[in-house]
Design a protein that fits this description.
Strand content: 15-25%
Oligomer: single chain
Number of helices: 10
Shape: globular
Distance between the termini: 33 Å
Order of helices and strands: EEEHEEHEHEHEHEHHEEHEHH
Strand order of the largest sheet: 1-2-4-3-6-7-9-12
C-alpha cells in the first residue's frame, strides 16, 4: 500500500489504497471511502473491494481504504499525541480524525468536490467519524452505509443491570449458562474493555463522543442535492454476536441476548429467539440512526444474517451487495 503525508502533518505518513475503475464517464464521479473501526484495519475491506471490482454491476466507483494514525499499516503516530500536556493514549479525538480524513481526500483525490459523489462505508466507531464528516462538510456525502455502529450516546455496560444499584434482582441475570458470580465477573470487566474512556492502541480519545453525538438520529445529514443522504443501516445478527462474545470474551450467550440484543421470546424447541425488541439495547440505537436522513432515503435497519460485530470480515459479499444497492440509489437520484 502506498503512503501519503498530510499537509498539516508532513512527518507522519498515512497508509492508503485507491482503486480506479477501467472505464470513466459517470463512474469517475463516485468515490467510496471505507472507514475502519478500532478492532480491524483497512486490510479487512480488501475482500469487499475485490468483489466490487469483479462485479458486473453498472456502477464502478473509485474506492479508497486507509489506516488512521497508529493503526494497521500506518505505523506513524498522530503528531498531536506528542503535544505538551497530552495524556498518553488520549492524544487526538474524533474531530481530529475527521479533519485528517478530509485532508487525506484532498491530497489523494484533488478534484472538484462539487462534481464528485462521495459514499462513506463505516464500521463500528468508524460510523462516528463518518457522521462527523458529513456533519462538518455538509452536502459532500451522498450516501452512507453503516455497519453495526458503536453505540455513541451511552456505554455498552449501561445496557446491563447494575449489580450495585438498589433493587437489583439476581433473577434478572441468572440463567442456565450464567450464575450470579459469572454475571458479577462479566459485568465488572465490560467497562474495562468497551467504555469510551478505555485507551486504544492508536491513541484515539473517545471520551467526548457522547457530547459530539448525543443523539443517534441528529443532526440530520444533508447530501449534495440539499436533501438527506441516502442511508443504509446494518446491524449484527444477535445469535452470531452472542456466539462471538462467548468465544472472544467468555460472555454467556444469555447475557448478550437479554441485554445487548434484547429479544422478546425464546423458543425452547428450536433454541431461537423469536422477536426483536426494537426499543431497547443496540436495536434501539440502530433504529435511531434512521433519523439521520429523510424517511424516503433509508431502508430501515437490515440485519446481517450470520454476522457478528465485524460484518465486513464475516460476510464481505453481503457488504458488497448493500454497497451496490446504495450506489444504485445514489446514482439514480441525479
Amino acid at each position: 500500500m502506498p503512503f501519503i503525508s498530510l499537509a498539516s502533518k508532513p512527518q507522519a505518513p498515512i497508509s492508503y489504497d485507491i482503486t480506479t475503475p477501467e472505464r470513466g464517464d459517470e463512474q469517475s464521479q463516485v468515490l467510496v471511502v471505507f472507514i475502519n473501526g478500532l478492532g480491524i484495519p483497512a486490510a479487512s475491506w480488501r475482500p469487499v473491494v475485490s468483489i466490487m471490482q469483479a462485479s458486473n454491476g453498472p456502477h464502478k466507483p473509485q474506492m479508497l481504504t486507509y489506516d488512521r494514525f497508529g493503526q494497521g499499516a500506518t505505523t506513524a503516530r498522530d503528531p498531536l499525541d506528542e503535544q505538551a500536556g497530552k495524556e498518553p493514549g488520549y492524544g487526538h479525538d474524533f474531530v481530529d480524525a475527521t479533519k485528517d480524513l478530509h485532508e487525506l481526500l484532498q491530497a489523494v483525490v484533488p478534484h472538484d468536490t462539487t462534481s464528485r459523489r462521495l459514499i462513506l462505508v463505516a464500521a463500528s466507531i468508524g460510523v462516528h467519524l463518518a457522521r462527523l464528516y458529513a456533519q462538518h462538510y455538509p452536502q459532500q456525502v451522498a450516501g452512507l452505509l453503516i455497519l453495526d455502529s458503536n453505540i455513541g450516546n451511552q456505554e455498552l455496560s449501561d445496557l446491563w443491570p447494575n449489580a450495585q444499584a438498589p433493587g437489583f434482582d439476581p433473577k434478572d441475570v441468572v440463567a442456565d449458562d450464567c450464575t450470579l458470580e459469572q454475571y458479577l465477573q462479566v459485568s465488572a470487566k465490560l467497562p474495562k474493555i468497551f467504555n469510551s474512556d478505555v485507551k486504544s492502541p492508536e491513541g484515539l480519545d473517545r471520551r467526548n463522543v457522547k457530547r459530539l453525538l448525543p443523539e443517534p438520529g441528529a443532526p440530520k445529514l444533508t447530501g449534495p442535492d440539499g436533501r438527506g443522504v441516502w442511508l443504509t443501516v446494518v446491524g449484527h445478527d444477535p445469535e452470531a454476536f452472542a456466539d462471538e462474545s462467548l468465544k472472544m470474551m467468555m460472555i454467556p450467550r444469555s447475557l448478550s441476548m437479554r441485554f445487548s440484543n434484547p429479544w422478546v421470546q425464546h423458543d425452547s424447541k428450536t433454541c431461537t429467539w423469536l422477536t426483536l425488541l426494537r426499543n431497547s439495547g443496540w436495536n434501539k440505537y440502530n433504529e435511531g440512526l434512521l433519523g439521520l436522513t429523510d424517511a424516503d432515503r433509508s431502508r430501515g435497519v437490515v440485519l446481517a444474517s450470520g454476522c457478528g460485530h465485524f460484518i465486513q470480515k464475516d460476510n464481505p459479499a453481503f457488504v458488497a451487495t448493500q454497497l451496490e444497492e446504495l450506489l444504485e440509489r445514489v446514482m439514480s437520484s441525479k
